[in-house]
Fold 8-amino-7-oxononanoate synthase.
Amino acid sequence: MNASEGWQRLESRLEAIDRRVRSLESDPSRRNSFIPYIVDRDSPYTNVDGQYPDHDGQPLLMMSGYSYLGLGGDERVVEAAKAAVEQYGTGTHGVRALAGSIPLHRELEAELARLLGREEALAFGSGYAANVGTIGALCGPGDTILIDKIDHASIVDGCQLSGAKVTRFRHNDPGHLDRRLQDSDDSGLRLVIVDSVYSMDGDIAPLPQLREVCDRHGALLMVDEAHALGVIGRSGLGIEDHFDYEHLVDIKLGTLSKGIPATGGWVVGSSRLIQHLKYAARPFLFSAALAPAQAGAALAALRILESEPERVTHIQNEAARLRAILNEAGLQTGLSETAVIPLIAGSDEGAYDLATACRKAGVIGIPVVSPAVPTSLARLRIAVTANHTKAHIDTAAEVFIKAARECNLIEA
Ligand SMILES: Cc1ncc(COP(=O)(O)O)c(C=O)c1O
């Protein structure tokens, strides 16, 4: 054996990805992945100069961003990030448990706990790390984790790290969860995990029904609020706010990379739970602490979320309006009931065709294809943000409908 034999064994895997990229992005005008977008700080427009041979240099209207609250370029958030760098420098001195903690982490965690109605919070380096770390720290061999069929990949990876038995139940189906729990081993801990808002479909988990099923079987309930914080609920505080309950889940967790325009993740819960995670969540213990600029930006954005609830109302109203216009024209938006609106195109190639037609008309809608979504349900993943004015939404709707006609998805 030498290294070249190892590379030969890898070759078929490298070739599989290479073939897939070449088939979907067959010419430069069909590229959708890894485009360096130069985002305008004050508007949802973005520049892609030099990225497409057929592009005339005009800014494009971004309709697939994650920055729901529209705070990515907000002066207050940018200044808070700068102030954090001025005070604490660019990095941290390692992991939180050793020399990596700074007072800003504690401030951010106190704000998260207060705002989200729990005793304490813990900030992770990413939402991915928050899921993997929390699940890995709470469950082990002998336990059972029950996850929704389309839960986020970081939940799936956390389950693998834990070594627990994993069972999937049908998407948003409490009856099926009930049967799965009935059939599961009740000698260990049973943890049910759902996304509050599903990132590719934009529908909401049926929390009260899930809670009732969990209670009947003595199972704990954890939610991932990645696409819910800043998006659902009267105050934008997520799924409990949406269903008008103060405390309906056992473990609430989310990211600081979507509505909150930074990077990082969080978990909120009782002081005992947070203490356990501090000492047992591997991505928290063995990965560098959240960088000062990110903690500063996140803290500022959380304060704006609380003081400017009109941003949340705007997202909710405009998303409902966009969905209604698209549905009226015959476009399918799946199960969406939030800011995330899938434009279902069907085949993977069909989604790429639709994305290209939209871009040529000045709007970016990014395709999501299999295996991220089922093969015949490839889509453009559209997201409405607080930076989209009514006029932006009208423009986008017009472009989506025209492009869908060009691609024969709806009648002309
Ligand atoms: C539902 C969900 N959970 C977790 C994550 C991971 O968050 P982050 O990007 O902050 O690591 C994502 C990211 O896309 C997500 O959609």
